[in-house]
């Protein structure tokens, strides 16, 4: 764009030179490069971004490295200080790098604030870290905002299944009806199931428990719900009644599996007017707390990496377990449940108990790096002395 034949870029340079920008302001033009007036080493000092403005460049400012806004919770370590000049303007810049040294460059000092960055999660839209012993939330992000939670919904289904198994009204060896055409069709569609209900096999509660828990089988979860309550609709009413009994103010269920009604409709298992289960991070953590407190076997089962059920491999996608990509030995992660739908994004409810500490429960919802952020959140939660035994 031009104004009377003067290009915007040239006009910006003219204004900058006319105003004589000093070291109190950043230099704004980068095309022609900057010259170094003076440079010196400095004691390694931690900084974090002051706001969403600013970027890292090479020293001559001919190439941008990254924008600061993409690193909201990064601590930058400054080791050099320089006065850079562009035209008649001068500014003070720091050479900084992140802890790993993988991102580094020069940034105007005014975009930084001294000190380490406060803890935060970049990707999760909602998150909680809870002391499992006390129920105290030790860190949160949008803790009371209800969101779609995908297959982490199965924690409530597992709870009600175990409740019946541990009562006089049911047992692990009870045979569950799996003849529903909808559930069989769901198992044959990898996008919404994958665990097949074979016509020649009688499935027990225990088999479907492992299929729903480890493999996150949707048809297994729905079948268990029907076994618990007599029908899909009655089971979902039980889910909501249990949430109410626990005084969860931000939890509503329309699905035993976590699939949305937009997917369930084709199989005859849609329920209610809402499209999805919606639960807040805090309420989901409380469901997990009830589950592991009342039925601690879920922690032993949660460590199983894979299990064969009726000749089908049920694989546990918790990648914080031993031998998996994001495993950290000190965290002793032994659960709990993954989840994903396009609507909910990647969700994960994790739990573990570090030596000498209380057990921690974490929830991250609609995340892009659910295991990395869960690991960071667990480590941060353990900095709270209130969680020490």
UniProtKB/TrEMBL annotation:
Q: Name one Pfam family in it.
A: Peptidase_S11
Keyword set includes Iron: no
Q: Know the name of this protein? A: Peptidase S11 D-alanyl-D-alanine carboxypeptidase A N-terminal domain-containing protein
Question: What taxonomic lineage is listed for the species of origin?
Answer: Bacteria, Bacillati, Bacillota, Bacilli, Lactobacillales
Tell me which residues make up the Peptidase S11 D-alanyl-D-alanine carboxypeptidase A N-terminal domain: 124-368
- Keyword field: Cell shape, Cell wall biogenesis/degradation, Hydrolase, Peptidoglycan synthesis, Signal
Task: Kindly give the InterPro entries that the UniProt entry links to this protein.
Answer: Beta-lactam/transpept-like, Peptidase_S11, Peptidase_S11_N
Q: Which PANTHER family match?
A: D-ALANYL-D-ALANINE CARBOXYPEPTIDASE, D-ALANYL-D-ALANINE CARBOXYPEPTIDASE DACA
Of which family is this protein a member?
Belongs to the peptidase S11 family.
Q: Which Gene3D superfamilies match?
A: DD-peptidase/beta-lactamase superfamily (3.40.710.10)
Per the record, the domain of life is Bacteria
Q: Does the keyword ATP-binding apply?
A: no
Q: Which residues form the signal peptide?
A: 1-31
């Amino acid at each position: 764009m031009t104004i009377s034949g003067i290009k915007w870029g040239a006009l910006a340079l003219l204004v900058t030179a006319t105003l004589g920008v000093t070291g109190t302001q950043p230099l704004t033009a980068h095309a022609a490069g900057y010259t170094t007036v003076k440079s010196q080493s400095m004691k390694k000092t931690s900084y974090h971004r002051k706001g969403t403005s600013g970027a890292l460049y090479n020293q001559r400012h001919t190439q941008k490295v990254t924008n600061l806004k993409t690193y909201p919770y990064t601590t930058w370590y400054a080791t050099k200080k320089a006065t850079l000049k562009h035209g008649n303007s001068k500014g003070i810049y720091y050479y900084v790098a992140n802890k790993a040294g993988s991102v580094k460059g020069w940034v105007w000092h005014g975009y930084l604030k001294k000190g380490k960055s406060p803890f935060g999660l970049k990707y999760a839209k909602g998150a909680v870290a809870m002391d499992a012993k006390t129920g105290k939330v030790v860190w949160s992000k949008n803790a009371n905002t209800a969101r779609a939670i995908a297959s982490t919904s199965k924690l409530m289904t597992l709870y009600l299944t175990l409740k019946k198994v541990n009562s006089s009204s049911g047992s692990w060896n009870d045979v569950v009806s799996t003849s529903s055409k909808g559930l069989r069709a769901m198992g044959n569609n990898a996008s919404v199931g994958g665990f097949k209900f074979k016509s020649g096999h009688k499935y027990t509660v225990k088999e479907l428990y492992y299929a729903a828990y480890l493999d996150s089988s949707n048809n297994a979860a729905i079948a268990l719900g029907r076994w618990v309550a007599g029908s899909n609709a009655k089971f979902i009413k039980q889910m909501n009644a249990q949430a109410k009994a626990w005084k969860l103010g931000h939890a509503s269920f329309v699905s035993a599996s976590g699939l949305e009604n937009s997917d369930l409709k084709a199989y005859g298992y849609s329920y209610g007017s809402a499209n999805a289960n919606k639960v807040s991070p805090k309420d989901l953590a409380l469901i997990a707390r009830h589950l592991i407190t009342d039925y601690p076997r879920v922690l032993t089962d949660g460590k199983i990496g894979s299990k064969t059920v009726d000749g089908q491999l049920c694989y546990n996608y918790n990648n914080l377990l031993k031998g998996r990509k994001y495993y950290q030995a000190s965290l002793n992660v032994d659960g709990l449940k993954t989840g994903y739908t396009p609507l909910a994004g990647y969700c994960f409810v994790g739990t573990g108990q570090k030596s000498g500490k209380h057990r921690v429960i974490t929830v991250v919802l609609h995340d892009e790096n659910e295991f990395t952020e869960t690991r960071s959140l667990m480590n941060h939660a353990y900095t709270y002395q209130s969680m020490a035994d």
